[in-house]
Amino acid sequence: MGDEEEEDYMSDLFIKEDVRPGVPMVRRVREALQKEEKQKEANEKNRQKSVKEEEKERRDLVLSSALGNENKGFALLQKMGYKSGQALGKSGEGIVEPIPLNIKTGRSGLGHEEFKKRKAEEKLENYRQKLHMKKQANEQAADQFRIRFKNKQEERKMEGDLRKSQRACQQLDIQKMLRICLRTALETVLQIMTKAFLKKGVLDKE
User: Fold this and answer.
1) Could you tell me the CA-to-CA distances from 25 to 4, 9, 12, 20, 93 in Å, in that order?
2) Contact at 8 Å (CB) between 61 and 53?
C-alpha cells in the first residue's frame, strides 16, 4: 500500500532526500526512464528493415562464413592439393585470405571516387600554394620593414650630422664676425690715436 501511494513532493521527506551524484534517483523518475528505454527497444525490434540493410546483413553473413565443399571453386582447389588456411602458390608465398569484396552502394558513377580524390588533392595543393604565397608576402613585408627602418635610421643620422654642421658653421660665422669687429675696432683705435698724435705734434711745433 505504501509503495502504491503517490509521493508527496511538497513534503519534508522529498526536500531531505539525497540527490547527490551516485545516489539512486527518485523511484518514479527511475521507472519513467526504464519505461522509455523499453519503448525504444520495442520500437527498434518492430522497425522494418530496409532492403539495403537486409542485403548488407545477408552479404556479411555469407562473407563471414568459410567456403565449403559445395563450392565448386573450393572443391577444385582441394583436388589440386589445397588445404584450408594454406597460402596460394606452389611454394606457399601467395595470399591466405581472399581478396576483399568492395561493393558500391552509392548512386555516383564509377569514376566519382577518383574525381573526389583528385579534387581533394587539387584543393590541398591550392591551400599549400596559398600558404606559400602568404609566407612569401610576409617575408617581403618583413624585408620592406627592415629596409624602411634602416633608411629611417640613416635619415636620422644624416639629420643629426646636418644639425652638427649647421652649429659648426654658426660658430665659425660668429668667430668670423668677432674677428671682423675686433679688427675694425683696432683700426678705429689706431686711427684715433694717430690723429691724436699728429694733432699733438702740430701743437708742439706752434
Assistant:
1) 17, 14, 17, 9, 62
2) no
Contact 94, 88 (CB under 8 A): yes
Sign of the torsion angle spanned by Cα atoms 150, 152, 155, 156: negative
Q: Cell numbers at residue 188, please?
A: 678705429
H/E/C letters for each residue in 46-86?
Answer: HCCCCHHHHHHHHHHHHHHCCCCCCCHHHHHHHHCCCCCCC
Q: Report residue 81 as a C-alpha cell.
A: 592439393
Query: What confidence score (pLDDT) does residue 15 get?
Result: 47
Phi, psi at 175, each rounded to 5°: -60, -40
**Average of pLDDT values for 125-130?**
94
CA 114, 117, 119, 125 dihedral sign is: negative
Contacts of 78 (CB under 8 A, 6+ apart): 69
From residue 204, give the alpha-carbon distance in Å to each of 28, 198, 199: 150, 10, 9
201 CB neighbour count, 10 Å cutoff? 9
| Burial tier of 74 (Cβ tally within 10 Å: 0-12, 13-18, 19+) | middle
Instruction: Name the band, by pLDDT with cuts 50, 70 and 90, for residue 123.
Output: very high
Contact 58, 64 (CB under 8 A): no
pTM above 0.70, yes or no: no
Eight-class DSSP state of 126:
H
- 3 pLDDT band, cuts 50/70/90, is very low
